[in-house]
Amino acid sequence: MLRETRELLSSIGVPDLDPALPVRQLSVAEQQIVEIAKAVSLDAKVISMDEPTAALADHEVSLLYRIVEALTARGIAILYVSHRLREVFDLCSTITVLKDGRQVGTYPAAELDERGLVRLMVGRELSAFFPDRAADAAPGEVALALEGAGNGFVDDISLEVRAGEIVGLAGLQGAGRTELLSAIFGADPFTRGSMRVGGEALRPRSPRHGVRAGLALITEDRKGQGLSLSLTVAQNALGVVRAVFPGRTAAARTELPSTLEELALVARGLDQEVQFLSGGNQQKVVLARWLAVAPRVVLMDEPTRGIDVGAKYGVYEVMRRLTSAGVAILMASSELPEVLGMSDRVLVMRDGRLVGALPPSASEEDVLALAAGAEGAEAAA
Amino acid sequence: MSAVVGARPVRRRRLSTTAIVFIVLAAVLVLSAVLVTAAGKPFFTAGNLAAVLTLMSILGFVAIGQTLVIIAGSLDLSVPYVVSTASIIGAGVMAQGPAGIVPGVLAALAVSAGIGAVNGLIVTGLRVHGFIATLGVGLIISGWLGTSFQGSFGSAPPEFRVIGATLIAGVPLSTIIMLACAALAALLLHRTRLGHHLYAVGGSASVARLSGVRTKVPVVVAHALCSMLAGLAGLLLLARTSVGSPTIGSQGGYDLMSIAAVVLGGTLLAGGVGSVLGTIGGVAIFAVLDNVMSVLEVNPFLKDFIRGSVIVLAVALYAWRSVQRRPPRFRPGKEAAP
Amino acid sequence: MIATAQRSLGQRFLSGLATPSGAVFVLLVVLLIGVIAMNPNFAEPGQLVRFLSRTAPIAIAAIGQFFVIVSGEFDLSMGAVIATQVVIAGNVIGQDEAMILRGIALMLAVGVVVGVVNGLLTTVAKVPSFIATLGMMLALYGFVRFLTGGAATGNPVDSFREIGRGALFGVVPYPVLILLAVGLLAWLVMRAPFGQTLLAVGDNPVTARLAGTRLVLVKTSAFVLSSLAATVAGILLVGYAGVHPSVGQGYEFQAITAVVLGGAVLGGGRGWVLSAAAGAISLELLFTLLNIAGIDATWRPTVQGAIIIAAVALGAVAWRSARKPKPSRPAGATGPAGTASIPTTTTRSGER
């Protein structure tokens, strides 16, 4: 069985993946390869890939590209579903656009450009991908500060995020961004170093401790960690208040309709179960959960993963509104344009450590070079 | 590519849960021997070992079947009533004499398998939680048993009763049959496609479905086999008691005790992980405990207290060591790993 | 945008009846009409109240079990708790009126301890609640039978048994009043932040923890509420059943049946607490109906088994369709042979 598996893996261009390893020990990219190998082993004529790169970092994406090309060369048809426009143009020969469960149109890729595709997806012209920064924005006091902090997964982290500032956190998959955010939040507490929130020395021991200190964590896994899927919009939006500040429930309930209105949530009502909402609207409910406790520091992990272009813009607007109200945001993202387009500063992680800081004017190549640890990159930072 | 599939830290090999089960069993055996010897009674005698093995056989059958069902992600609470039903049907058919033995066995097993198939179809077809489906089916049967039979029913001819009394090389025949069933079940789990599918469905039904596994078939088969094994248990009880009894299954408490034995054997109640070998270990732990408490003449009512505590402690032990932790990249006070 | 026109109370009532937790009330009314049609005497207030009084213990137990089930767990120790409390009442209170208050206090304390142990075993020791409460059940039954020798022992003083069989002003039985009080309390608890957090824990404990929920506290409280409900049921049962270690046997499965009949989903996150009580009452009405129809009481389990399977099978369909938006999304149908699908989430990212 092992030999057959090795042959199978070689046939899709990954001969050096050990077939005897338990899947749990593989990286996400490798797990994805196993999925593809499984499909190939079934002699599939058509393979549909739903957001295959959602959990991959950029350099892992190129590996997927090679596999997809090898598969198409063998005469296998690929149905490729993605929110990432660049991949669609890189890989696909025909593009079909769906909106609200209906087919908007099918076009040869050569006849479309990114702008045209976005127009088809959103139904209107989008002037810019990222909302402008407020003109008079000047960062305020330090809202979150780490000094030599670390635990089992990240080490020697020192950083500052000021009120009204968005700090981007870039890095390859596995660089430790998610781990850093959950350590700050208290889900995997720091075991050394110091941390201050709003000037007060405090190292959260649990998520509850973090929430009480004014922290919020928007996780990358919306369905698995961010929402209670079979509960309603209202139950979810009030979930954090009820769990941590039960005394404030009544006030939060009164404010809820206007909050959801501002977020432009599309739902049948407050009593609709969130599992029936689109990804973008689910993310708005997640935002509403945390807005209800008025956090000082919002930690965001892949805040726009798997949501459509229009909803992405909505999330960006909320981020801008929060910062102009003096909230500090630390945002981890694998989408470099997003990191560079939204952040005031970009911190880059590699192997569980911060390896440099870049201004938003940096190029994607600069960030990648630093994240991948290319020669001379650190000097450039 | 090599950047992705790079060197990974070598993980320490950990003892499998089955190994722990047998370590616990060994500890229980040693402790029992010490206690019994201290009380001035022999423990490792042929007679006493045969008694332990006999204790194992009935619960063993039920627990083997329960293992299959639990690995598949379901549960079977109807087993006690299947045990009773098999004993009643077997005794009813065999009442005509030795000629009824084969038809009696076949009829009892066929009816049992049919009940299991119904359980499986309710779980898969009507999408009813295994707990509720088998609780419901068990209640339905118990109503029928309670209405139609008062007291014992039918009888088993002496030729059939021999099975309950035969020893081969000091080992009761019923235990040998039970161990043979265990071996077959282990073969099924580890050497057949159906077995692999059982683990896959129990681990994650949706992943199994997306991988092209027909998720319903393994669950139905597991339930049918489980009931058949419960039926066998009923027949062996019949061989011992020589008359069919409508309450023999529920008196034995085989539903909860078999689930406890399976979990004691290291099988995950949530499904997808487990082994028949571990279950046999779990059953043996119960049997040794029971035997020791009888030899030491512990108040029978304290037995339940001790059993309950052992189950909870053992499962807490497994849960404690199986908490999945990612290996840390950094250790305090040390230079970081790569 | 959110549908601004909030639906009228009537509309919400009707759509609520379409969920399994609402449908059980329809079932209850239908059964009640059925019973009255076959035995008009049953409609007399006295008869109805006596019936309700008889069902109070199981309805209260169901309410307690509801808290545990909705948080995603099981409490199999319920029947054993009832037996324990009954034996405590017999032994501690005995014929001494002065001991009644102290006896009740002791029973409540035992209830709290059992719940705390169940909860900590489940949450801290990570023993599946099925096993933890099964162990508790064995331990308690063993203990009770050890104390009593397995036979009926002395009944407590009559003034204590009045709680289970007496009536306020000789008209409204105390069990009915206690059931109403427990129901009201349970309803308030489920509306309060604690109850809503309990639902969230049952739906997705990871999400709940990241929202700052103290899982250990919340789940343990559910187990405490369950064994306290069993304690109250035990106090009532002493009243008309007397002291015997088999009192309460099977109550855990009866209560789970009632909760599930009331539309709660095993695994947690869904259900309405008063529907659990309605489920218990419906079950008793059904037994009454069988009784009036002259069907042997031995058939009761069969009917109970059939109805629980039917209720859950129908409920599974109803929960799926009840709140689903109308434009049905394309079902995740498996493609034709020769296609394979790669889902987005290759890992359950539940590592922490």
Automatic annotation (TrEMBL), chain A:
Q: Does the keyword Nucleotide-binding apply?
A: yes
Q: Which UniProt keywords apply?
A: ATP-binding, Nucleotide-binding, Repeat, Transport
Does the keyword field hold Repeat? yes
Q: Pfam families of this UniProt entry?
A: ABC_tran (PF00005)
InterPro entries per record: AAA+_ATPase, ABC_carbohydrate_import_ATPase, ABC_transporter-like_ATP-bd, ABC_transporter-like_CS, P-loop_NTPase
Domain ABC transporter: residue ranges: 137-376
Q: Which GO terms describe its molecular function?
A: ATP binding; ATP hydrolysis activity
Q: Which PANTHER family match?
A: CARBOHYDRATE TRANSPORT ATP-BINDING PROTEIN MG119-RELATED, GALACTOFURANOSE TRANSPORTER ATP-BINDING PROTEIN YTFR
Can you name this protein? ABC transporter domain-containing protein
TrEMBL record, chain B:
| Protein name per UniProt | ABC transporter permease
Name the domain of life this protein comes from. Bacteria
> Which spans are transmembrane here?
20-40, 46-71, 78-95, 101-123, 130-150, 162-189, 219-239, 259-289
The record's annotation in InterPro entries points to: ABC_transp_permease
Q: Which GO terms describe its cellular component?
A: plasma membrane
PANTHER family, per the entry:
ABC TRANSPORTER PERMEASE PROTEIN YPHD-RELATED-RELATED (PTHR32196)
Entry keywords, A to Z: Cell membrane, Membrane, Transmembrane, Transmembrane helix
Primary localization: membrane
Q: Which CDD domains match?
A: TM_PBP1_transp_AraH_like
> Which molecular function term from Gene Ontology is one that the record holds?
transmembrane transporter activity
Subcellular localization, as worded in the UniProt entry: Cell membrane
Its membrane topology is listed as: Multi-pass membrane protein
Q: Show the Pfam families listed in the entry.
A: BPD_transp_2
TrEMBL record, chain C:
Q: What membrane topology is annotated for this entry?
A: Multi-pass membrane protein
| Principal location | membrane
Q: Where does the signal sequence lie?
A: none
GO cellular component terms, A-Z: plasma membrane
- Region Disordered, as annotated, extends over 323-352
Q: Which Pfam families match?
A: BPD_transp_2
Entry's localization field = Cell membrane
Where is composition skewed (Low complexity) in this entry?
A: 329-352
Ranges that cross the membrane: 17-39, 51-70, 76-93, 100-121, 127-147, 167-190, 222-243, 255-281, 301-319
Q: For this UniProt record, give its keywords in alphabetical order, as a comma-separated list.
A: Cell inner membrane, Cell membrane, Membrane, Transmembrane, Transmembrane helix, Transport
MF annotations from Gene Ontology:
transmembrane transporter activity
Q: Which InterPro entries match?
A: ABC_transp_permease
Checking PANTHER family in the record gives: ABC TRANSPORTER PERMEASE PROTEIN YPHD-RELATED-RELATED (PTHR32196), AUTOINDUCER 2 IMPORT SYSTEM PERMEASE PROTEIN LSRD (PTHR32196:SF71)
Name listed for the protein in its UniProt record = Autoinducer 2 import system permease protein LsrD
Q: Which organism is it from?
A: Agrococcus pavilionensis RW1
Taxonomic lineage is: Bacteria, Bacillati, Actinomycetota, Actinomycetes, Micrococcales
